[in-house]
Design brief:
Protein name: Helix-turn-helix domain-containing protein
Oligomer: single chain
InterPro entries: Cro/C1-type_HTH (IPR001387), Lambda_DNA-bd_dom_sf (IPR010982)
Number of strands: 0
CATH architecture of one domain: Orthogonal Bundle
């Protein structure tokens, strides 16, 4: 959270906004801006979203954990893939192929 706070402060300063101005635009208190810039994890996500929108970055929260960029999430998803295939035929329910269809090859040599 400290890095996020530092980034919010840098974004505010780059836009030449005072804490009070950003707070008014975001609909939060100046104290909330101070807490965010310090990296206080107790600030609600709704207030963070408001501040990001006031800074012109309304989609920034969606970018935080984009699945394409989440190496840990992707690694866990790959690990969760079964190592062996799953059979969808119940034991004892497998039937012998229907002999009528085996003789129905089409003229092009491909049969399904």
């Amino acid at each position: 959270m400290v890095n996020l706070g530092r980034n919010i402060k840098q974004a505010r300063l780059a836009r030449r906004l005072a804490m009070l101005d950003l707070a008014e635009r975001a609909g939060v208190s100046e104290k909330t801006i101070q807490r965010l810039e310090r990296g206080d994890a107790g600030v609600g996500i709704g207030k963070l979203a408001g501040v990001l929108a006031a800074l012109g970055q309304p989609d920034a929260l969606a970018e935080i954990l984009r699945i394409e960029e989440d190496a840990v999430g992707l690694s866990l998803a790959v690990d969760a893939i079964p190592k062996r295939g799953i059979s969808y035929v119940k034991r004892g329910d497998a039937r012998a192929p229907d002999s009528r269809h085996e003789a129905d090859d089409d003229d092009e040599g491909v049969g399904f």
